[in-house]
Amino acid sequence: MSPPPELVSKNRFLGFLIWQTFTSTTIYFLTKLFLLAFFTTPKFSPSQLCFSLLKFFTFTFSNLLFSSSLSILSSPQSLPYASPLQLAAGLVRFAFVSSPAEPEFRRRALVSARFVVFVVVAGISGALSVVCLCGFDGFELIARLGFRGFVFGVLYGLFDLYKKRWVLKFPIIQRPLFYSFKMGLPLAIKRALKLSNVAYLFLSVLQVFLPEQFKSGGTMGQFITEQIILYIGSFSVVFCWELSHHLHQVLHTKRFLFAPPKGSAAAETNPSEPLLAALEESIPDSLPQYLAYLDLCMVCENNVDTWRRAAFFEETGETYKRVVAACLRPLEQLASNLSEGLEGCFVDKAHQLSNQLQSPTDSQLDSRHCEPLNNFQKYAWCARAVASLTAWSHEEDRFGVAQLTGSNAAVTSTLISSLLAVEAFMGKKTSLQPQHLMGPAAIKWNTPNTGRRDVVTTKKQGGPQHAKAYAMADVLRTSVYSIVSTFHDEMFTSNKAGLFEKDWVIKSKPLFGTYELLVQKLHHFLDFRAN
């Protein structure tokens, strides 16, 4: 029996800590052997042995602390956070106005608090790790190394936040764990060298402005030896952290099979229930839900687990409707959120020139309406899965549940409506094109000014949100084309019979656009001229 979704995350977290402990222990002993062989004189005594064991366990604890904070901070999507100015304004309003904080502000403030905790933990982990690895004696030397390690860890934590390395990035191709780890090992070494070099130079410059007790003393030879040991220790610490990042990505983004073992009693009776439970009962936008959508997408697209895909087309049609609903729900949310953000952007054509003169920072779209695009990966899986499942129903649906349940029309309508919303967000005209303005070879003549209102956005096309919108539009367009290519003959026949709109477009008001606009867009796909 497949474990519950919550247990999947816990098992992967524990597995990550075990593998991280193994790698950090290996790096610790290799570094110690290198330093003992070339830069220090070994001393063997019971007290020295106890002191060495204490340093080893402290180093292991510091790395476990860093790995735990990374796991707590990590998320499958980029989370919105509150800036320091927003936090200060919220605290002032709470202290003097005594008004309850808004849920959105509390959510952003909680994310910002997690950022601060991660940076502080990185600093503490850096201080403990550098002291344990470099192994100097004396309170002043330990204090100096601890300070440099803390600054070093804070810089690394800030770099992680700036690069958003806490966001889980699911690979396009799923590989075995050992192969994925081996592929990322050279990159981890290269990045550890770069970061340790930059941090060492920064700390060297910072040391000039520090008091005398934080500066190195002794002879020139002792100073050079101390700097070499410090650099080697700093590189080892960064290398441990880089491997932790890589292991965290590899272990948490690997596909999980939400299905009973093949040949078991559960596989013969209801093999889709674990997957449906993960899709419907998991916390929204959590790691188990992302893993469930990844599993669903691979089942629908690939020919490996055909027995699981065949179970979707069971005779009653309930399983098929639940799978389609689970895929369409996020896409409907995407279209709805973008539609709400675009409602305030309807302006007369007479005001378009003034809008174009605005700076990109004066965009009329509020930032919270751009946040749905942060879930690009989940939306892409949903679109690809439901399109592939609809296409496979042409051959594998023995009972005709896709047509009898009306899912085909719901799928095409939702995909096209979402595509229109994303194109409008990108600034592309999505208005209805009169048929008499279409020339031969689908050439569009200039449209006269009809006084109609259009959506105008001033999003900077080189920005990250535009890149995500462009990729999302490409996924949606490809998904619709996969359905049209499979059902092209049936669509062409129903179009001649006048039943095309009835079979493939729902009559209810779409989340974005109009019924006529959806029909015209689907005709463009049928003629293979939608772009």
Structure explained in plain terms:
This protein is mainly alpha-helical. It has helices at residues 5-38, 46-73, 84-97, 103-134, 139-163, 177-208, 220-252, 265-269, 273-281, 287-301, 306-312, 318-343, 352-356, 376-396, 401-404, 407-425, 464-486, 488-496, 500-504, 515-526; strands at 346-347, 454-455. It has a two-stranded antiparallel sheet. Helix 4 packs across helix 5, helix 4 packs across helix 7 (220-252) and helix 14 runs antiparallel to helix 16. The chain is elongated. It starts with a helix and ends in a 5-residue tail after the last helix.
Task: Walk me through the topology.
Blueprint: H1 5-38, H2 46-73, H3 84-97, H4 103-134, H5 139-163, H6 177-208, H7 220-252, H8 265-269, H9 273-281, H10 287-301, H11 306-312, H12 318-343, E1 346-347, H13 352-356, H14 376-396, H15 401-404, H16 407-425, E2 454-455, H17 464-486, H18 488-496, H19 500-504, H20 515-526
Antiparallel strand pairs: 1-2
Helix pairs in contact: 1-2, 1-7, 2-4, 2-7, 4-5, 4-7, 5-6, 6-7, 9-10, 10-14, 12-14, 12-16, 14-16, 14-17, 16-17
Keywords: Membrane, mRNA transport, Nuclear pore complex, Nucleus, Protein transport, Translocation, Transmembrane, Transmembrane helix, Transport
Family: Belongs to the NDC1 family.
GO cellular component, one term: nuclear membrane
Q: Treating each run of at least 4 consecutive H or I residues as one helix, how many helices?
A: 20
**Number of strand segments:** 2
Low-pLDDT residue spans: 346-366, 436-460
Helical content stands at 55-70%
Report the average pLDDT across residues: 82
Largest sheet: 2 strands, antiparallel
Radius of gyration: 29 Å
Distance between the termini: 45 Å
Q: Classify the beta-strand content into a percent band.
A: under 5%
**What is the H/E order?**
HHHHHHHHHHHHEHHHHEHHHH
Structural class by secondary-structure content: mainly alpha
* Largest sheet, spatial ordering of strands: 1-2
Please state the overall shape, judged from the principal axes of the Cα atoms: elongated
